[in-house]
Structures are given as structure tokens and as C-alpha cells.
Design brief:
Blueprint: H1 5-9, H2 17-30, H3 38-53, H4 58-76, H5 85-97, H6 107-130
Helix pairs in contact: 2-3
Length: 143
Amino acid sequence: MEKHPLHLKNPELQTSPEVQRAVLREEQKTGEKVPNDPAERIEAYMDRLENIFLNPDERKRERNLEMFRDKIYDALIIKRENFPDSYFELQKRIARERGQAVEEIPENVREQMMDVAIEDQKASLGAWMDLPHFGRCRLPGVV
């Protein structure tokens, strides 16, 4: 079997804990051993993701999404320690363009700005996950 596109992008994916759990689950479900081939292992993982997020049973799909919501937030929303200085530089530039005199942003204001940005990201991602089409999307063969 030729290499899976995700294997080409991330050769370590096949050995990740998520893929290993999906392979184990597939083996338990079918009673057959999944070959130790990266493409087969990644395909088992993709099948698992489709079953979780694209389940035809709307109740199961919604339950699955709720179970994974916090993990999705944790994986995709910026962490406080990863906020780039360029974010604050942009905010200072915007303030200057509005005629406000800003030399430095105090630490307590930086904390508030990070809180707002994190909450905005969470609200935006949550709204997107709550859209009716979310569970009916098809995963592309190549991510």
C-alpha cells in the first residue's frame, strides 16, 4: 500500500497514542490484527475519527462532540504562555492610530487582553462546532 498522505506529512503519527488506541479498538471490534503498515494504522485512526465526529446518529454525534469539546479547546485555543509579543505590539499600534498615547501595556492589562482573546477564540470555536453542518462535513482524504 502506498504511503498515506498524513504519514508523509507526519511520519510519527502512526506511533502516536491516539493512533495506537484506534488500532487497538479496530482490532477488538473486528477480531483481526491491523497490519503494522503506517497507511493501515492511520486509516484505522481516520475511520475512528469519522465514527466519532461524523456518526450518522445525531444523538451519538452530539454526545461525542460534548465529550471531546474540552480536548478540542485545549488543542486549538492559544495558551497564555504562547501569546506572542507581536499581539501586544499590534494592540499598541491600533491604539496609537486611534489617537491614544500608549508607550507600554501594564502587566495587569496584558492579562486582561489575553483573557479576552482566549474567551473570543473559545466562543468562536464553540459557535463553529455548534453549527448544524459540523457533524455532516466529510473529512478530506488529505489534511
